[in-house]
Automatic annotation (TrEMBL):
<feature type="binding site">
    <location>
        <begin position="224"/>
        <end position="226"/>
    </location>
    <ligand>
        <name>ATP</name>
    </ligand>
</feature>
<dbReference type="GO" id="GO:0000287">
    <property type="term" value="F:magnesium ion binding"/>
</dbReference>
<keyword id="KW-0460">Magnesium</keyword>
<dbReference type="GO" id="GO:0004141">
    <property type="term" value="F:dethiobiotin synthase activity"/>
</dbReference>
<keyword id="KW-0093">Biotin biosynthesis</keyword>
<protein>
    <recommendedName>
        <fullName>ATP-dependent dethiobiotin synthetase BioD</fullName>
        <ecNumber>6.3.3.3</ecNumber>
    </recommendedName>
</protein>
<feature type="binding site">
    <location>
        <position position="41"/>
    </location>
    <ligand>
        <name>ATP</name>
    </ligand>
</feature>
<comment type="pathway">
    <text>Cofactor biosynthesis; biotin biosynthesis; biotin from 7,8-diaminononanoate: step 1/2.</text>
</comment>
<comment type="subunit">
    <text>Homodimer.</text>
</comment>
<dbReference type="InterPro" id="IPR004472">
    <property type="entry name" value="DTB_synth_BioD"/>
</dbReference>
<feature type="active site">
    <location>
        <position position="32"/>
    </location>
</feature>
<comment type="function">
    <text>Catalyzes a mechanistically unusual reaction, the ATP-dependent insertion of CO2 between the N7 and N8 nitrogen atoms of 7,8-diaminopelargonic acid (DAPA, also called 7,8-diammoniononanoate) to form a ureido ring.</text>
</comment>
<feature type="binding site">
    <location>
        <position position="118"/>
    </location>
    <ligand>
        <name>Mg(2+)</name>
    </ligand>
</feature>
<feature type="binding site">
    <location>
        <position position="36"/>
    </location>
    <ligand>
        <name>substrate</name>
    </ligand>
</feature>
<keyword id="KW-0436">Ligase</keyword>
<feature type="binding site">
    <location>
        <position position="41"/>
    </location>
    <ligand>
        <name>Mg(2+)</name>
    </ligand>
</feature>
<dbReference type="GO" id="GO:0009102">
    <property type="term" value="P:biotin biosynthetic process"/>
</dbReference>
């Protein structure tokens, strides 16, 4: 899960989508391997999954400073263990998992059939020397969900992100446009313009417009309510990614 920028709503979408899938009976884990500048995002993902998860279940690297991991490397003269992070994420993937059912524990590590891995910032945000969010996607063989703020300028931002991704051999599965409190005049046509200008891509599923959920969207206590309010969009995402349970969407 990659953004066109920082602060576009990746964590909110990841958390609510994880909650939706869990309610549908899908064995899912949402995680943010790299996080800095506060634990609000980690706490939101913990609450969204409604389990007794520790930070170590969702996050590999953390620092209090609001800087990228690579900037932290330069400031402190210590290396970020990128390869260790890749191994950490892979250890959470249930190899035989279809995504349905519970979360097995292997060697004390709870695994999931579906992993939602949230990046930091944009696709080319640096994570370590010579490594970016795109590098993490490549190492994991991930399908990308591009999350962006639905406002003027988003068409260019999304198309640039997708171009950078495909040039690096990454597969883009979906674009999610996050609704804004005060939508500008570009909003009604942004999704259509993105669809019209996308390159040919194998496995691309579509562009989803996600509703604005209010000023308290990051409040973990509101997650059950927010997931219901966004239920239609979350159901569309699950169906496009073939992650819906046989019973269909929750009410």
């Amino acid at each position: 899960m990659v953004g066109t920028d920082t602060g576009v709503g990746k964590t909110v979408f990841a958390g609510l989508f994880a909650r939706y899938l869990m309610d549908e009976g899908v064995g899912v884990r949402a995680m943010k391997p790299f996080c800095s500048g506060g634990k609000v995002d980690i706490e939101f993902l913990q609450a969204a999954q409604d389990e007794n998860l520790g930070q170590e279940d969702l996050n590999f690297w953390y620092c209090d400073e609001p800087i990228s991991p690579a900037a932290w490397e330069l400031r402190h003269g210590q290396a970020v263990d990128f390869e260790g992070c890749v191994d950490w994420v892979k250890s959470r993937q249930w190899p035989g998992g279809s995504g349905q059912g519970g979360l097995p524990s292997v060697g004390g590590v709870r695994q999931a059939g579906v992993l939602l891995v949230e990046g930091v910032g944009g696709l080319l945000a640096p994570l370590a020397k010579g490594k970016t969010v795109a590098s993490l996607g490549q190492a994991l063989g991930a399908q990308l969900i591009v999350v962006a703020s639905n406002r003027v300028g988003v068409v260019n931002q999304v198309l640039l992100t997708i171009e950078a991704a495909t040039k690096r051999g990454l597969k883009v599965a979906l674009v999610v446009l996050m609704g804004q409190k005060e939508p500008d005049d570009s909003v009604p046509k942004n999704a259509d313009l993105i669809r019209q200008n996308l390159p040919e891509m194998t496995g691309f599923k579509g562009v989803i417009e996600f509703p604005y959920l209010g000023p308290d969207v990051s409040n973990p206590d509101l997650i059950p309510i927010l997931a219901k309010e966004a239920g239609k969009a979350l159901c569309q995402v699950a169906e496009l990614l073939a992650l819906s349970s046989p019973s269909g969407a929750s009410d």
